[in-house]
Write a structure and sequence with these properties.
Strands 1-2-3-4 form a four-stranded antiparallel beta sheet, covered by helices on one side. It has about 130 residues and is of the alpha+beta class. A hairpin with a 3-residue loop joins strand 6 and strand 7. It contains three helices and eight strands.
């Protein structure tokens, strides 16, 4: 099994720290420690979820979170910056088109290596990166 982590955009981390950091500091300065503890807890959960976003190739299956995709059903891979919600922590994404109309957007850190691994299993995938 090969596992690839998601690429993380620096601005996303700054945005999240800004959104949750302000209430943490505000709660400390105004002695509202409950607010600070709540925001710190939410931050911990968010970063824990970030650490769980990865893409695994197990035999001929690609596992993206709880979804398993047969690599032989992948038709096309193309580059995209689509901001739709997806298991990707960067806008530097690739779209994987599989089955007839299914598509998933992901952002593997080692994109070229990831695509090469998929092509070893299914060499007829159309790659437009």
């Amino acid at each position: 099994m090969k596992t690839y982590r998601s690429k993380i955009d620096w601005w996303l981390i700054l945005l999240i720290l800004g959104i949750f950091g302000y209430p943490i500091v505000e709660g400390i300065l105004t002695n509202q420690y409950g607010l600070s503890i709540t925001m710190i807890s939410i931050l911990i959960v968010i970063f824990w979820m970030f650490s769980k976003i990865k893409y695994a190739i197990e035999g001929t299956m690609l596992k993206v979170w709880w979804v398993k995709i047969d690599i032989h059903s992948i038709k096309r891979i193309y580059k995209t910056n689509n901001p739709l919600s997806s298991p990707a922590l960067s806008l530097d994404r690739i779209a994987i088109v599989y089955n007839t109309y299914d598509e998933v957007l992901i952002s593997p850190k080692l994109k070229k290596e990831f695509v090469e691994e998929l092509l070893k299993i299914n060499p007829i995938i159309i790659v437009e990166i």
